[in-house]
Amino acid sequence: MYDVLIIGAGVTGASIARELSRYDLKVCILDKNNDVADATTKANSAIIHAGYDAKPGTLKAKFNALGAPMFDQICKELDVPFKRIGSLVIAFSEEEMKTLESLYEQGIKNGIENIHILDKAKTMELEPNLIDSAQGALHAPDGGIICPFELTVALTENAVENGVDLFLNQQVIDIEKNEKEFKVITQKEKFTAKYVVNCAGVFADTIYHMVTPTDFHITPRKGQYFVLDKEAGNFANTVIFQCPTPQSKGVLVTPTVHGNLLVGPDAEDLNDKTDLDNTRERLNFVRENAKKTSENIPFHLTINIFAGLRAVPDTGDFIIGESEKVKGFINVAGIESPGLSSAPAIGNYVKDLLLDKWEGLKEKENFNPYRRKVVRFNELTPQEITDLVKKNPSYGRIVCRCELVTEGEIIDVIHRKAGATSLDAIKRRVRAGMGRCQGGFCGPRVMEILSRELNMEMHEVVKDSPESKILTGKTKCSEEEH
CA of 206: how far to CAs of 174, 187, 313, 409, in Å? Predict the structure, then answer.
């Protein structure tokens, strides 16, 4: 019997789990995928919004304003890369300059004071590659960039280190409720819990419908992106937004925390909650609309494209709280933008909501907020490399040449709590396969390491999901193997 069962191991579910791990509670996380951060969290713009964008009085505005300042401390504790590079909303006409005034006033109402409206000269000084028609910008110096899946891995790892149980490949197919508990049924087994927290992303309405007729609906909104090589990483200095219109916030251009350039997304509402296909039509849309920001974006340096799904609620706002229909069932649903920015504050809020159920519950004396530091070989000095390789020769063997990832780093993340078990899980943790060749050279070597360290056959190693087989068998077999 668990005190709290969380459905969904994205950034929101992981944030809640880590906050609850501070207390003497029995907590678990279930996720239908083969790794944490394997849905919306792995495919978004990776931006920490300053907080001016959300409508005043909404949960989005509240939790964005509370959450964004928390990232410095959280990322320090969890050893996660994070940079406050600032953001610009660009106006391309006098009419759009008036829109910036409205955004500025909205930000002040949301409690965001460190924002400024810049004229054309100061805007171009910050971003020399902007199109010449730019008239000015709303500047938010506190805007930031992060790697959302690295953050979620770190949150989960720290939660597990502090006592939370993690169960992957556990798709919830039914939930039964009696007077005292929930019985959460997956395709593999049954779990019982006093409280259930629904962080199921685009499937949050489906999960809620298992306990009561749903009073909200989630629409999956697909966004497609271009990832450009690190050679293009200095094209932008800040997160560059286009001035929003009633139809769209426009296509953004931003550096990533690891030095690439990201361009996108579009916005396409779907019925299919599993559609992550890229399409030529929509990618062309992104490319053409990005030219409004700059005509010189070096798309010839594209090394990858991807698509992500946002969970858009028909309520127009985050849905956070205990169900009035089913006591003990807490929805954390419709967490679209600025969901990533809001996640730490949502984690705190849901933690407090649950702590009210247990009178006198105190924080563990042995709670450790710090994750063991990660070795990032490509950031080490020559002397640090020499010292490290003397201690552990596996750090002297480069596996991914594009990102300078060593065998030692890969072995480490396999054996950590919430460790990597697939090719993409390695990629998300240490970036092996994130560079120009996209795993073309290092992929087979990473498979060999996974096979060896997890004591599995090479053909059992998967790209991501259990069904994403890479090898099907040997091309040459001995007589005995036939």
Answer: 10, 16, 12, 38
Question: How far, rounded to the nearest angstrom, does the alpha carbon of residue 128 sit from its chain's CA centroid?
Answer: 30
- The closest alpha carbon to 13, from 322, 315, 330, belongs to 330
CB-CB contact of 258 with 146 (8 Å): no
Assigned token pair, 442:
């290092």
| Domain CATH for 228 | 3.30.9.10
Beta bridge partner(s), residue 295 = none
Could you tell me if 43 and 306 are in contact, meaning their C-beta atoms sit under 8 angstroms apart?
A: yes
Pick the closest to residue 347 from 77, 47, 67 (CA basis).
Answer: 67
CB-CB contact of 15 with 103 (8 Å): no
**162 lies in the same domain as 290:** no
d(C-alpha 169, C-alpha 479), whole Å:
36
What CATH number should be reported for the domain holding residue 367? 3.50.50.60
Side chain identity at residue 397, one-letter code: R
Residue 74 resides in a domain: yes
**Which residues does 135 contact at the CB level (< 8 Å), separation at least 6?**
91, 92, 93, 94, 96, 97, 120, 123
In whole angstroms, give the CA distance from residue 29 to residue 9: 6
Q: Which of 286, 297, 145 is nearest to 236 (CA)?
A: 297
Catalytic residues: 49
Are residues 168 and 56 part of one domain? yes
What does each of the 482 residues of the chain score in pLDDT, given as a tens digit?
999 999 999 999 999 999 999 999 999 999 999 999 999 999 999 999 999 999 999 999 999 999 999 999 999 999 999 999 999 999 999 999 999 999 999 999 999 999 999 999 999 999 999 999 999 999 999 999 999 999 999 999 999 999 999 999 999 999 999 988 999 999 999 999 999 999 999 999 999 999 999 899 999 999 999 999 999 999 999 999 999 876 567 899 999 999 999 999 999 999 999 999 999 999 999 999 999 999 999 999 999 999 999 999 999 999 999 999 999 999 999 999 999 999 999 999 999 999 999 988 989 999 999 999 999 999 999 999 999 999 999 999 999 999 999 999 999 999 999 999 999 999 999 999 999 999 999 999 999 999 999 999 999 999 999 999 999 877 877 666 65
Domain holding 321, by residue range, is 1-82+145-217+314-373
